[in-house]
Amino acid sequence: MLIDQERMGMIMRAKTHPRQLGIPLSRWGRNLIACCPFHSPEETSLFFYDALGYWRYRCLQCGSEGDLVEFVMRSRFNGLDEQAARTEALDFLGTLEQEHETQPDEHPWIKEIGGEKSKVLENFVRYCHWAACKSPSSAEFLASRGWSIGQAQLYGIGYYSGDPEPFISYCMLSGIERHQISFYLDNLEAYHEPRITIPARNSKGLIHSVYGRLIDDAEATHPYVSYASGPSDIPFNIQSEISKPVIVEGFFDALTADLAGIPGVVSTMYQELSLSHLYKLKACGADAVTVILRREQDRREQEFRIQKYLKMAEELNLKFKSIVLPAGETVDQVVRKNGADQLISLVDQTEEDTVHTHRRSMLLQDIKENFDTAMGCPPEVSVGYTLNTFPKLTREIDGIQSGCFYVSSKPFGLKTTLLSSIGLDLLQSNPNLKLIYIALETPRRQIFDRMEAMMIGESVLTVRKQNEDEAINQKILEATRDLMGFVRNNRLEIWEDQPTLDNIELADILKDEVKEHPNLVVIIDGIDHLKVSTHMDLSDIYQRRSSVILDLYKTLDIPMFLGGELIDSDGELVGPRAYLRDSDATYWLEEKGADMVLSVDSKRLGNNKLYQGNLHIDPLSNRMEEEPCLL
C-alpha cells in the first residue's frame, strides 16, 4: 500500500495531466474546466487546477474534489469498492505512464534549478491551505471579498497564523529539515501577524514565492509581504502563450478576473510597473499589454506615470492600452458587479495608446468623470464641505472646495482667529474630514487653548488654569476630551514649525496623508515663514513661496488655506502680489467701525466678489461666526 501511495504521488506530480484523461476540457483563466459527471443535470462547473503542486479537481456546484487518481476512481470505476477502484485507477494511470516514458521519473522541483526551494514552498502552500480550512477568521475575510474556501483552493489561497512551529512540525513529516525552511522561507519569522497567503508562480507554473496579505490592514506598515526572497519582477499569475495580457494592481483583482475566465490577467502586487515586468510578459508571448489602474487622488502624477509606462512599452515594441477606473472602483468589484464580459469589452473598446492619443483618452475620461460628479450632486447639496456657523458663506461659495485660499485681515492678528474658527467649524460640521493645522507663527499650545476656548465660549486665559467655578472646569474637561477625540480618531493634527520642515518635506508628508484621508483640509498659518528650497531661479521670495504652494495644491487637489500678511491701501489689496495672483480666492477680514466685514474675492471663479458679510466675534472666546440674517 505504501508503494502504491508513493507511485500514485509520482504519477500525479510528474506524469498525469487532465488532458490525458480523455474528457472534453476548455481553458478557463489559468485553469481547465469541464462538465461535472458527479451530479445531475451536468453543468460546466468542474475545475482542474494545479495550485497545490499537482493537478486536482473540484466542482464549485456539488463540491466534489480530489486528486486525479480519485477522479478516475469515481468516474470510471465507481461500482467497485474503494481498494479495487484505487487499484484499477492506478493501473489506468500506469498505462498513461508507459505512453510517456520519455518524461523523466522525477518531481517537478528536481527538474527545476534550485528545486529544493520549490519543494519547501509547495509544502508551505499546502500547509496554509489546510490551515485556511480550519480558520474561521480566514473564512470570514475571504467571504468578505466574495470568495469561498472551495474557490480559494483553485489558486492555493491559504492562511498563516504567524507561528512557524506548527508548519515546521508539518514539514518534518515530508522529510524537510528546519534549516531548509529558514533558508528558503527566510522572511517567515519576520512577520508574526495572521495573513492570507497566495503562491506566486513563474511562467512554467513553479512556485517562486509566497505572498502574505494582512487580514486586518487598517494600520498596517506592511500589508503585503513575501515570505521567500526571490525575484520581485515576475508578474503575479503570469502564464505562457498569452498574447494580450491585462495588468492590474492587486492580487484579488487578478484572481477574481481569472476565476471569471478572463485569460492572462496579471498583477504587479502594488509595485511600480517596470521594464522588467514587461520584458517577462513579452518573453511569454505578449505583443500588446493593457494596464488597468485605480483612480488616484493625484491625477497629474498618475497621468505622468502612465506616460512612462507607454514609453517602456514602445521601447519593447509592445502595443499599449491604459484604463483608469472610476473613483473608488477596482477590477475585482467591476467583474463581480458586471461580469467578465464587461471588462473584456472595456479592454477591447479602449483605443490603443500612443504619445498623441494618450492625452486625448485621459482628457475624455476626465470630462466624463467631471460630468458624472456634477450630475451626482443634487441642487440643494453643497459641492464642498459645509460650515455650520457660516451658512451664508457656505451657500455663496457652494461649500469649501479644493483650492488655494489666501486669508489675511486688518488688524493682522484677526486672520489667525478666523483660521481657527473656520478650522474648528470644519471639524465639527464634517465628521469624515481631517484637518492639518500648520502653525508657523504661533506655538502649538496656543492653538489648543484657542480651540478649547472657542468650544466652550470662554476666554483663552480661562482654559489655562483651574477655575473657581466647577461648572466651567467641567466644560474645560469636556472640551479637552473632544479635542483629544479629534486627535485619537486621526481627524486633527497641529504642527509647529520645525528646523527640518520645508516645502519638500511638507509635500511628501501631505501626499501620504491624502492617500489615507482623501477628505483632507490643510491650514498653513504664517505662509510668510514657510522655508522654501525649490524654485531658486526666482529671486523674489514671495513669488518663490507662491510657486511652491501652487505646486503643492496642484499635486494634492485639496482645500488649502494660507494665512499671511497683505497691505490695504485706499481700499485695494496691494501685496504681496504673487499670492493675490495665484490664489483661487482671497479672504479679507477688516474692522469697519463697529462692524467686522469678511470679503471673499476671486479672479478665477466668475464674479470678483464671491461673498461679503458681517461677522460676529464672541467677546470671551474670540470665536467668529456670521451675523444672523434679519428677515
Number of contiguous helices: 22
Largest sheet: 9 strands, mixed
What quaternary form is this?
A: single chain
Report the C-alpha radius of gyration, rounded: 32 Å
What is the CA–CA distance across the termini? Answer: 96 Å
Q: Tell me the structural class.
A: alpha/beta
Strand tally, please?
A: 24
Mean pLDDT: 85
Shape: elongated
The low-pLDDT segments are 100-114
Fraction of helical residues? 40-55%
Percent of residues in beta strands: 15-25%
Strand order of the largest sheet: 16-15-17-18-14-21-22-23-24
What's a quick, concise take on this entry?
The protein is of the alpha/beta class.
Notes on the protein architecture:
This protein is an alpha/beta fold. Helices cover 41% and strands 19% of the residues. The chain contains 22 helices and 24 strands. A nine-stranded mixed β-sheet has the order 16-15-17-18-14-21-22-23-24. Strand 10, helix 10 (251-259) and strand 11 form a beta-alpha-beta unit. Helix 1 (2-15) packs across helix 3 (82-99) and helix 17 crosses helix 18 (444-456). It is elongated, with a radius of gyration of 32 Å. It starts with a helix and ends in a 5-residue tail after the last strand.
